[in-house]
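Re: your question from the hallway

Yes, I did run it. Sequences:
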Amino acid sequence: MSEREKILGRIREVLKAQAPPPGEALSEPDSIRSRQCLPKVGEPFDEQIVLFAQKLAELKADFQIFNSDTEMKQALVSLRDTAGWKRMARHSGPLTDVLCPVLGIPCLLTDQPYDVHDLEAADAGISECDALVAQTGSVLVTNRSAGGRALSVLPPHHVVLARREQLVADLPAAFELLKQKYGEDFPSMISFISGPSRTGDIERILVLGAHGPKKLTIFVLNTNH
Amino acid sequence: MSTFASQFLQDAGRATDNSDQRRFIRTALGNYEIARDRHKGSFQDWQGARQLAAGIKWEAVNHLDKYLEQFVLKLESRGTKVHWASTGLQARETILQIVRKKKAHSIIKSKAMTSEEIHLNDALEKEGLQVVESDLGEFIVQLRHETPYHIVFPCMHLRRGEISALFQRELGSAPTNDPEELTMIARRVLRKKYITADVGITGANFAIADAGMVSITENEGNARLTAALPKTLITLIGIEKILPRLEDLALFLPMLATMGAGQQLTCYNTLYAGPRQPGESDGPEEWHVVLLDNHRTQLLADTEQRDALHCIRCGACLNVCPIFRNVGGHAYGTTYSGPIGSVITPHLRGLQDWKHLSNASSLCGACTETCPVKIDLHHHLLQNRRNAAQEKPAFLERFAYQIFSLLVTKPALWSLAKKMGRAMQPLHKIIQGTPLDPAKSWTQSRELPRLAPESFKDWWRKRR
Amino acid sequence: MTVTLFIPCFVDALFPQAGISMVQILERLGHKIVCPEAIACCGQPAFNSGYWDESRVVAVKVLEQLRDAETVVIGSGSCGAMLKNFYPGLFADTPHEKLAKAVSERTWEFSEFLVDKLGVTDLGARFPHKVTFHDGCHGLRELHIKKPPRALLSHVQGLELLEMTEAETCCGFGGTFAAKFPMISAAMGEVKCASAIETGAEYIVSNDSSCLMQIQGLLSRQGNALKTIHLAEVLNQE
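Structure:
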């Protein structure tokens, strides 16, 4: 008998004896019930974007919203100059392809297999995302939407380029979106990123950039796609 | 008394004598409480969330066979290799075989209490492998050759000066008292390790049955890197980590963050559905998931305490426990400390050897009150005490209770006992504090209350 | 109504004034008090140590004495929890199961009885002192009694309630725990005492004498002037 059969056999044997369910009998738990318990998020976009910005400020991430491509390009250039980026990495996407060439610095593309040393040498990683979550100030990325597993976590500065319609209200909405978008064909990595990498391991004092990015910048284009 | 029990008494004694350290821990956990309460308060219905979470975990644990099969089937369909291990030894052997086959030299690990449970690092090091913990706290305790002090905050017992001295000694770094600089020293050292490691090993927070995914929660990004860079990835998961549906995470991720570290959401909550898939540019070529039983099915068999398998290892019960706060994490001598550790360790490692942890509780119930998945923790401690006494009663203790039962059920005897007590009281003054003092365990730190000259019952009788 | 008052063993022997105060308060409110001579202890010490057979020997006596009681009032949150919450489990699958449940339903902790059952909060007491209140864990977390003692204290003339930060933290008594693990118990008690002292109160008030025994024991050893007093005694001051 395989270990699999042995373990499953033991489980089936002991589950013959019932354990009382906690409290009220549980109907099928769903996003609606979770949503009623979780922190409240308003319906209108304006309210959600304000909440999103507030959450990002708490998380010590940078956030800006722009009304045009040109404004966002300018902001990227000024980010490059103030941080002194020499090399960058990105993937190919509708926003990154249009906006990033303006930076004019050596750029690693992570859409195809790449040398990890090259990515490690990049000063910034620029990616798109699947969604922004107002409730928690999170960026939802997958390795398909954001240039693989490492782009958003290895370079010391992660810049996210997003569009306003990517903002969703809350976590239940983010999971609904994932299921709708990918069906059964999920990417092999999905990550909710909430602020730059951090640790509180030393005397519970917050330090940014423990292993992942020290900085997280989120640029949102406020035009409908 | 088991050797573990006497070791506990000794270590708890040493810990409670150190009032500086106790204050240090209390301050840290006091700050945690403030942050935790702020985020709890942002929930529309925290108690409803607990109820819902408890219901979801009940559903998962009470249909564990069904959900595990679903989870594994989905994982395997995307090319993940799943291994089952009944014991810690089997899990270690499975992992050793994988690393041997890969001819690995160096391993990068992200935080996994399950790997502590099965003493995985020892086994890998004996095999001649270089194993590096990448979580900052784990990295620090590994350098000190210590076990984690707390399941969520591994090095919360250390002050920055101690960490600086450790880094100077072990890494040759310059002295500093700045937590940021200390973090950056570790960052620089570990960066190289990610890139050169042959194998990555992670734990897991949740195993999602319907989607066939593993969910890992972390703040530092070390698990993200561990699961992105090495060619081979191994994930060790206890079989109880199942959640039925992907959307259950919408509730569990913020609850885990709130109770675990007082955050709204932990920095990285990542789901892994497989190794690198066709068309993907990075990620491990091979992913091995090791499912560990190691006495969990034994706990599952105990219908009274089955809900202990609902635990999401947030550490909230440790943080509020006045025992933990005063004796600290190392005194327990277990992988899982605090109330949840006291409940499950007797199941994982033997009741008679570990019953002392269930006795070492005032049963205050702060743990049960805080638990986000509503595990009936302090009542389980009572059940462990009952089971231990039933299985192997302590002769003298039982005899004492038999005498006491007699005294309090016979009014005349009870009256006589009080009279005798009153008569003996002046005598006790003389022997108090000496080895002859029968109340020594009380009087060594506290004054003994005096028996009243007239008891309530005396007063009541006289009055009538 | 006729109130059967259960005075726990340690109150009987060590803190009779708390019990006497309960009798006097309830009589002033016009109730007839019964105190069964044959009850001394609820059986909790043996129960908490895992010796359920020995505990049942004691608890059966209690159940039999309370069989016909209309209302049971108990002068300790801890013993209250034993009767209300633990008896049904202790007697599960025994001939006393039904009786244990019935008694459980008729049992009230003293402060809860006054406030939630009788609807009384003002007893006309006067106690011109600064006090802090200690929530005994069993009362707080088993019986969920948080507001009643405070409602009662708020009507005591001259009394100023100063809440301590560790009001809900265990004092470290825990029954036999205090003797089996004295160093942990005392360490917990020190935290409690320090928090109470910090408030500048003159008295620590609680609805559980067992906690007060632990706290007073530590305070006396420290030589601190802070005193402990049972809630009923405060409410009985004129």
